Amino acid sequence: MDLFKVKDEILAAFGNMRAMERLHIDTNTEEKIKNISGTKIAESTEGQFWVSFQELNGFLLLNAIILGHSDLKTFDGIKLLLLTAEYEIEIESDDKEIVSNFSNISSTWITKVSFIIDHKKREIIENGNVDAVEYYFKNKVTKLYKI
Question: Which domain of life is it from (predicted)?
Answer without folding.
Answer: Bacteria
